[in-house]
Every structure is written in C-alpha cells, then in structure tokens.
From TrEMBL, chain A:
InterPro entries: Isoprenoid_synthase_dom_sf, Squ/phyt_synthse, Squal_synth-like, Squalene/phytoene_synthase_CS, Trans_IPPS_euk-type, Trans_IPPS_HH. GO terms for cellular component: endoplasmic reticulum membrane. Its EC number is 2.5.1.21. The chain crosses the membrane at residues 423-445. GO terms for biological process: ergosterol biosynthetic process; farnesyl diphosphate metabolic process. Belongs to the phytoene/squalene synthase family. The keyword Lipid metabolism applies. This is squalene synthase. One of its GO terms (molecular function) is squalene synthase [NAD(P)H] activity. It is found in: Membrane. The keyword Heme does not apply.
TrEMBL record, chain B:
Gene3D superfamilies: NAD(P)-binding Rossmann-like Domain (3.40.50.720). This is 3-beta hydroxysteroid dehydrogenase/isomerase domain-containing protein. Residues 37-73 are annotated as: Disordered. Pfam families: 3Beta_HSD. It comes from Capronia epimyces CBS 606.96. The keyword Oxidoreductase applies. GO terms for molecular function: oxidoreductase activity, acting on the CH-OH group of donors, NAD or NADP as acceptor. The keyword Oxidoreductase applies. GO terms for biological process: steroid biosynthetic process. Belongs to the 3-beta-HSD family. Residues 44-62 have a biased composition (Polar residues).
Length: 489, 446
C-alpha cells in the first residue's frame, strides 16, 4: 500500500506520477525469461537474485537469453564473495584464504559455506551455494572462464584490503587508493561483463581495447554510491571518502558532520562529485559500443540513475544528515529514457549536467573545475550526436552562394526590363497629359479665352506680392515659354 | 607531465613579430624558458647552496594541476602556482636566438631577447631588420585589438601580413636569405559570423568573408589566406607557412581580451550589474591560456621545421593527413566552460561577491533590447560602452572549437588547465592594478 506521504507527493508532482504510470503500462521487456524451460537450479538462482539485489534483479531478468543465466550467476557469485568479506564475525586469518580461493569453489560440486553469523543478510545464499555451482557448470566454458578469473581477481583485492590495517583504521587515504578500491569492487565487474558482452557478440570488441571505458563504468557507479552513502557509511564506521580530499576541508573526518562545518562539508562533497564526474563521458562512450537492446538497457539504466543521483547530491546538505535517494517518479522517467537509445540517454545526462551547473556556486573552490567537467561531457555528447554538422554548413554555404548567383542573374536581366517599362509608362502618361492640356487650352482659346489679359493680371498680382524683384528673372523666361507654345498654336 | 622531459628544442634564429604585445611577449618568454620564474626560483633558493642555472627544480613538489586547489579571492595575489618552466618543454638557449620586432619596444621586455623597432607595413624598415637578424623562423603575432578602427585593422592585418610575408620570403628584396618557416597567428573568429552558434567547430568550417558584424575577423581571413597562399611558393623561396587560430586568449598580460574585459567590469561595475545573466547560461565558450597558445605556435613551428628538414634531405613528401605546411589549425584549451561561469569565476576571484540566488536571468530576446538600449544610451551620452547588441550576442551563444587537428598533426596538448589560466589572469591583473593605479589605455591584444 502506498504511504500517505507518497500520495501527497505525487499529487503535487503529477509529472513524476505520469512517468511511473507510463513505465508500468508501456514498458515491454526486450526479452522475458521463459520459466517453463528453466531447470530447478536456475529457478533457485533467480529466487536468490530477487532476494539479494534490489535494483539489478529486474534488469538482469530482461537480458537476452544468451546472457540471462551467465550474468545472473556472475552476480550471485560476487554476492557470495561479498557476503564473506562483509562479515565482521569472521577473523581476518580465516577470511583471507576464503577470499583468495573462492574462485576454486566454483568447480567443487556441492560446495557451500555456513560460517556466516546468523544476522548476515545473504547468509542463505552461501548455505545453498551448490545450486549456483550447478548452473555455473551448465554454461559455456568461455563464460565460466571469465567469471572465474574476475572472482579470483576480486577475491585477492578484497583480501589485500582486509589485511590492510591502515585501510581498516583510517579508511581510504589517497585519491589513487580510492580509485584502486573502486576498481576492485566495481571496475572488475565492468571488465567481466564487458568480456561477456563481447563473447556473446553483443558488444563491439573495441571495448576491450580501451579498458579505461569499462573501468569508468564501474568506477562511476561505485563513486556515486560512496558519495550518496556518506552518512550511512559514517554511522557504520566506514570511511570511503579519501583523506587526500576531505583533509583539504576539515581536520578530521567526523568534522564533516558538524553543523558548524556545513559549508566545508558541501565544498568537500562537490570535490567528490567533481572526481566522479570525470568518468561520465567514458560511460557514454562505452554505451556507444553496445549492440543489443537488452544489454544496452542493462548498462544504461544504472548509469542514468548515477548521474541523477550525483545531481541530487550536488550542494545538498541533506546527504550529510540522512540517506537520500531519487524519487520513484524520477527513477521511472530515467528507466524510460535508458531503454531507448544512446541519444535519449545523452539528453538525460545533459539535463542533469545543466542542473548541476545551475546549482554551482562561485564561492565553491571547485566552481570552475565543475563547470569545465560538465562542459567536457557536453562537448563529448556533441561529438557523438552533433547538433551542428560541418557538412550541412558547407552545403548551406554552397546553396546560399548558388542562390545568390541565380538571383543575381535573374535580377540584372528583368530589372533592366522593368526599369524600361516604368519609363515607357511614365513617358506615356506625361505625353498624354501634355496632349490633353494642349487640347483644352486650344478649345479655351477658340472659345475666346483672353490668355494675354489673364497673364498680365497674374503678373501684376505676383509683382504686388513679391515687390517685383523676383519676377524680373522669370519675366525673361516666361515669354519664351508660353508664347512659343501659343505661337505654334 | 614532468618526469619524461624531452631534450631541449632548438629553433635557430626566431623573430617574433609583435613581440612586445600580449601574445608576442609570451612567445618570447616561453622561448627564453620563463626567465622571471628562474629568477624567483634562484631568489627562493638563495639561502641554500645555489645551483647555477636552476633548471628542473624539485619536480616532486609540483602537484598535478588537477589536484591543485583553486586560489580564493583573498589569497590570489600571493598564491603560488606550479611553475610553467617545469611543465612546458624546455628550449635550448644555445640553439635558439630570440629577436622581437614591434612598433614600439617599451613594455614586456625580457633580457636575453634582442628588440627591433619597425612598422611592419614599411618594407624598407622591415628589410633593414631582416638584414640584421637573418631569421630562420618568423612567428607573427602582430594584430590590433578587435575594437581598433577599420583603417588600422586593414593596414596592420592585411597590408602588414602581406609585407611581412614578402620580406620573409625575400620577394620584396634581398636581405641575404629567406626564412624557412613562417607561423602566422590567425583567429578562430575567421569562421564565425558573430551571430550563429559554433559547436565543436573544426577547420573545415567555411570562412566568413565579408563579415558585416566583425570587420576584425574579416581582416583576419584575408591575412590568413595571404599566409597560407604563400606556402612553399618559389617566389617566397619555398618558405613553409601555416596559420594558428587561437580561441579566446586569457592569461597574464591580457587587458583587452576576455579575462581583461571581464576583470575591468569586475573592477568598476556595481553589484547589481554583476548579477545579471543574459540567456539561459547553458552556452559553452572556449578560452585558451596564453602559454598554451604559445605552445601551439611552437608545436606548429617544430612541425614546419621538421618538414623543411625532410624536404632538404630529399625525403618523400608527407601525406595529406599529416601535413602542417599550408594548413590552418584551431588552438584551444579543449576545455570549454559555460560562459557565465567563467565570468563569475573572474568576478569572484577578483574579490566581488556573487550570490547565485540573486542572479537575474534575462531571456535572450530581452537581452537584445538591453544591448540596443545600451547602444542608444552610449550614443546619447557620447560614451564608448562595452555593452552593445554584438557583445550581448556573445554572452548567449555557444562558441567552442575542436583542436583535434593540431593535436593529431603536431602533438600539441593544452598543458596548463584553463581554470589555472583564469586564476593566473586574475593574479596578474590585480598586481598590475596595484602597480599602475587607474588609467590604462587600450593596448595591443593577440
């Protein structure tokens, strides 16, 4: 049942309500899993998928049948590894070999693990791990090899961190460490998935030649989660924000949460967001290499959620007080956008970049760097979907030149003609008027009009008006004019 | 960047035309390996055992610029940026003789450079200088400000470039040789009509000529054409030419360009004026740090010298897609930023408070009305204001370029990030203001 608060929220935010309805009504999965053909163990795998993942389960289940089970098993294997790493009740000495050798268990029929503490939430997954092993062994050897390899790398990475006393004491130290940590927990997943996509021919093999791209896919998601979960992690005594960044704003990590350090905390968070934004253009580049719709959706949905979350966190002090997340309405809107094509996803990115830009404040030490980072992503979007094409401009230029040439030619010829016409017409009218004036004067003269008297009278009154001076000159002209006309008549 | 430093480059005898101007003086500075910084370094080191030439000093303490904290307005005049010397490729002082030519050599002088006064529109005076210098390389940076009267723009940009090319190529008279290489500083505005958006514009964009809105750009088109047409012609002694088109130069020494203009506004405008925004603010704008422009010029010079050597030794002609001779190149920082953000950064680092919640946004249509009103006001009061319909236009449009061609063909890359470039511009402007209080006339820019 929806909560009263939600009802009130969506009563005001109708646009978001519309997005939810739109998604629920109109979204058709590209592929749907066909339960009738599934084995018992596959069904159990999907059951655990639903149990363990909140966000990934839905997108995984819409994947192309070729990748459906491999990705599902990949996810569950890594989740199993995670469950061992997370369990603080297991001593480091027991944990280390478990993590380092976890990949070998995938070959052992019936392997399971019940050493987790009872409250560990995915404990049951490891207790019943044999079903996952069964499905692992059912899939193509190529996928098996990828999953095994990534599991081994990740297990080793986790083991290193679990032995690293400094990490456990003070958290992540440098920005480089931060990147490495994110690489182990997320970048490796990106690598494994990309190899599976390429193996299935659903992605451009070029994606493997640019490891930077799939690394960024993972790092972007992980960094956004680390930024958003700052409060939750702090309450759990975990510090993922690198010291190299927060120490520029506060002396101790705890100070970030003190109300008097509000501005410092916000500036620190924009530094973290700036660091994450650096991966955004790589993520779009990566998405451009995907060739199958369900794979595209699978990758694009989390990425657009991530940029929206970054936007939500940017200069939002609430993130230091409580757990914040994007609303369901926004999520549905993003999912609709992310299940179409790269251009729509890019527009969603652009929208959030502009929203970040609007919230950016000049007093923030990273103000201009953030502006530049947003600009960089926008410039990249323009490079893949140009809103201005040089070919069109050149063509337009040529067309304009041609047009100009044609109209110039048309102009010169007919304009001369029309000028002549106007002159002829004007001449005709004038001569007609002259003829008529002549005829009328002639008739008046025939009827006895005394022009000489009239002229004399006009001359006199004019002389009276002007005092005679002006007329002197006219006097010499007038007689030559009128009398000649008269004389001829 | 530091770490894999190349061996110092030699350019032979270089004549920097416009060498006392904003851009030209920075060319001289980079060719001399930033002598002012070397002085600072040795001063700071004077307590310790002094190393004789002070090169490559403590690279580990130079932070990567991405991690460099941005200075705030309170500390900007004392803020120490990582040195330029350690980041730009070193230049061999024995293999490079630096000469500068300008109309008047009174400002921006560096010891280590020989100065010559001459008017580039006067062939005899030019020939005299060339006889003395006998340059291998000419880097032409001379150009009046975009606001200069039409007659001056035409005379310096078109006639001056023509005379200079003809003298350099020994077409106008004998000075005992001819130049190998002529690098011409053009302008990215040669493809801009002063009105339309330019988005990721590359060198294939057509020239705008005639250009009724910007006569400056029109004269730059003519100059660029002259420079490119002179490439590899027998009457110019097969001198190799190319044109570099900077997009908005900012940095130390800028008075009339983007940073100079905005900072002048910051120094005089009332607070409300700084809180006005024309248009949506989503428009991206290119600006380029002056020493990156210089580096672009030097990369092009390198490439042309290599081509020259290649031809002298009779090797095969380079392919179309690697050619530099006879070509034009955009040079940018490859970091377009939102126009209003760049302005506000300059305002705020200058020391003005900008409260983002109090910004007034005027839609573009209304912005024109503002421009027109300002023009009318200026006309009525007889003032020469910066605000008009044309400047208003620039605040609302996208104007950024692709510099891929220069990157691919010459190995150029922007070395100093643009945010540092802006911060350096503010620092210089404030120090300059302290030294010369008030009244600074228009000086030459780019």
């Amino acid at each position: 049942m929806p909560k009263v608060r939600d009802i009130l929220y969506y009563a005001v935010h109708v646009q978001e309500l519309r997005s939810i309805i739109q998604w629920k009504v109109w979204h058709n999965p590209v592929h749907e899993r066909d339960e009738s053909t599934e084995t018992e163990s596959a069904k159990i795998c999907f059951k655990y998928l639903d149990k363990t993942s909140r966000s990934f389960s839905a997108v995984i289940k819409e994947l192309h049948p070729e990748l459906l089970l491999p990705v599902c098993v990949f996810y569950l294997v890594l989740r199993g590894l995670d469950t061992i790493e997370d369990d603080t009740s297991i001593s480091a000495t027991t944990k280390e070999p478990l993590l380092r050798n976890f990949h070998e268990n995938l070959e052992v029929d019936g392997w399971h693990f019940d050493g987790n503490r009872p409250e560990e939430k995915d404990r049951e997954l490891l207790v019943n791990f044999r079903y996952i092993i069964t499905e692992f062994k059912n899939m193509k050897p190529a996928y098996q090899a990828i999953i095994k390899d990534i599991t081994q790398k990740m297990g080793n990475g986790m083991a290193d961190y679990c032995l690293n006393a400094e990490f456990n004491e003070v958290g992540v130290n440098t920005v480089e460490d931060y990147d490495l940590y994110c690489y182990y927990v997320a970048g490796l997943v990106g690598e494994g998935l990309t190899r599976m996509f390429v193996e299935s021919k659903f992605a451009n093999p070029g994606l493997l030649e640019r490891p930077q791209l799939h690394r960024s896919m993972g790092l972007f998601l992980q960094k956004v989660n680390i930024i958003r979960d700052i409060r939750e992690d702090f309450d759990d005594h975990r510090k993922f924000w690198p010291r190299e960044i927060w120490s520029q704003y506060v002396d101790s990590f705890e100070d970030l949460f003190k109300p008097e350090n509000r501005e410092k905390a916000l500036n620190c968070s924009s530094h973290m967001i700036l660091n994450a934004l650096d991966h955004a253009d790589d993520c779009l580049f990566f998405l451009a290499g995907l060739r199958e719709q369900s794979v595209f959706n699978f990758c694009a949905i989390p990425q657009s959620m991530a940029i929206a979350t970054l936007d939500l966190c940017f200069r939002n002090y609430a993130m230091f007080q409580r757990n914040i997340k994007i609303t369901k309405g926004e999520a549905c809107q993003l999912m609709t956008a992310s299940t179409q094509n790269l251009q729509v996803v890019s527009e969603a990115f652009r929208k959030h970049l502009h929203s970040i830009r609007r919230k950016n404040r000049p007093e923030d030490p990273n103000f201009l760097k953030i502006s530049i980072a947003c600009g960089k992503v926008e410039q990249f979007i323009e490079s893949i979907f140009p809103s201005q094409k040089v070919e069109e401009i050149l063509a337009k230029g040529k067309a304009a030149e041609l047009q100009a040439a044609i109209s110039a030619r048309e102009k010169t010829a007919p304009e001369v003609g029309s000028k002549k016409e106007t002159l002829v017409l004007l001449g005709g009218v004038l001569s007609m008027m002259l003829v008529i004036t002549g005829i009328m004067t002639y008739i008046a003269w025939l009827m006895g009009a005394r022009f000489d008297v009239a002229f004399e009278e006009i001359k006199q009154s004019w002389a009276q008006l002007t005092g005679g001076s002006l007329f002197q000159g006219l006097d010499q002209v007038q007689p030559t004019n009128h009398p000649t006309g008269h004389g001829e008549l | 960047m530091a770490g894999n430093r190349a061996s110092p480059k030699s350019y032979g005898t270089v004549l920097v035309v416009g060498g006392c101007g904003f851009l030209g003086s920075r060319v001289v500075e980079q060719l001399l390996n930033f002598p002012a910084e070397a002085q600072d370094e040795s001063q700071r080191q004077s307590g310790k055992a002094s190393s004789s030439n002070g090169t490559v000093n403590g690279q580990h303490q130079t932070p990567h610029s991405d991690e460099l904290r941005s200075p705030s307005s309170s500390n900007i005049t004392i803020f120490q940026f990582p040195s330029l010397r350690s980041r730009y490729p070193p230049i061999s002082s024995s293999g490079t003789q630096v000469h500068a030519l300008d109309l008047r050599c009174t400002q921006n002088l560096f010891s280590g450079c020989t100065y010559h006064e001459a008017d580039i529109t006067n062939p005899d005076a030019l020939l005299e200088v060339f006889r003395q210098v006998k340059p291998d390389v000419v880097i032409n940076t001379a150009s009046p400000s975009w606001e200069a009267p039409a007659a001056i723009l035409r005379k310096v940009n078109i006639d001056g470039t023509r005379t200079l090319l003809e003298v350099a190529g020994a077409k106008l008279g004998d000075w005992g040789g001819h130049c190998k290489v002529f690098v011409h500083t053009s302008s990215s505005s040669v493809v801009h009509d002063g009105d339309s958006d330019l988005i990721n514009a590359d060198e294939r964009y057509p020239y705008v000529c005639p250009n009724p809105r910007e006569y400056y750009s029109e004269t730059k088109v003519h100059a660029e054409k002259l420079a490119l047409e002179a490439n590899d012609k027998p009457e110019y002694g097969h001198m190799l030419t190319c044109a570099i088109r900077p997009a908005g130069i900012v940095g130390e020494g800028d008075r009339g360009g983007f940073s100079g203009g905005i900072l002048r506004t910051a120094s005089v405008a009332p607070a409300w004026q700084l809180h006005i925004q024309l248009g949506t603010g989503d428009n991206l704008f290119d600006n380029t740090y002056v020493h990156n422009v210089v580096y672009g010029l030097l990369c092009a010079t390198d490439a042309l010298l290599a081509t020259h050597a290649r031809r002298q030794s009779g090797k095969a002609v380079e392919l179309d897609h690697e050619r530099v001779a006879g070509e034009a190149f955009n040079v940018t920082n490859d970091q377009p930023a939102y126009f209003w953000d760049s302005s506000r950064y300059l305002y705020s680092r200058y020391g003005r408070d900008i409260n983002i919640d109090k910004i007034w946004v005027l839609p573009t249509g209304l912005a024109y009305a503002v421009g027109a009103a300002a023009e009318t006001f200026n006309w009525l009061t007889g003032r020469k204001g910066k605000l008009n319909r044309q400047t208003v236009k620039y605040t609302c449009i996208n104007r950024y370029y692709s510099c891929d061609k220069l990157r691919r063909r010459t190995g150029y890359k922007p070395i100093v990030p643009i945010d540092e470039g802006f911060a350096r511009a503010v620092k210089w402007y404030k120090l300059d203001e302290e030294q010369t209080p008030r009244a600074q006339g228009q000086k030459k820019t780019q």
